Amino acid sequence: MHDDLRSASRLLNWYASAQGACFSAAAQGLVSLGLQRWPTRGRRLLEVNCAAGALQQPLHRMGFDVTGCEGSPALREHFVQNLGSRFVVDPAQPDLLPYGDASFDWVLVHLEHGGDRTLLAQTLSEARRVALQGLAVLVWNSLSLGSLSSQSVPLTALPALSVYMKLGQWEGRRCCAGALFMPVRWWEKPASVSETVQGDMSVCLNQLRDRVTRCTPCALLGSVCLLKLELPPSCPLTARPLTFRKVRFAGGRLVGSCSDRVSERPNLRSYDPDEQP
Q: Which terminus of the chain has a lower count of CB atoms within 10 Å, N or C?
């Protein structure tokens, strides 16, 4: 219990810092960019490892019917304190989701603060099981300058390329987007730079980011990556009903059966001993 409280407090304090706020803004931008083509009206989305629910409101504004699940009791308590009863959070571990097969249209999995290398395959399998149309995975990339330049970030580092390859075991269309292609210590803008220069730099960086996010090899080098798998449409097999016609007897013949054949039936008559065989 105390370990859970310490982990949750450390994570929330980092998100409240300047670097954590930059990370949150980048993750929210990736989610908005990556999920904007998904149909939203009347579609259910499950957010696995939702933590304190920082993305619940943006996802709700996009039009999704959002449900969150989180295994940490401390983070669930912060979720309720921040969002109240307007949003739903269920106690669930990512490797054992208490939902039926294909019970959600879309699934968003956070691995940056709820991932485990030993449970990665089971977590992705559970997300694929409950997803009907597609799933997205948010990863803190261990093969990035942001991960290599700082050891104090309380995030679970996983290679984005490895997660991207694991998504290839299922049929569907894969794509990815990345952000924060710089060391963590550079995430804060220098205070000496004027606002005009900052604005010009922001425009140039946004244009560069848009170009980079369209290139899969470069996107997998970002500090935070969004990996997406769009599943093919499901085509359930429906049995065709058999049509039966009325059955009637006409002169000892069975007419109007469900088969095209006409069954012959011998006429029944009394036995005559004088009749020659």
A: C
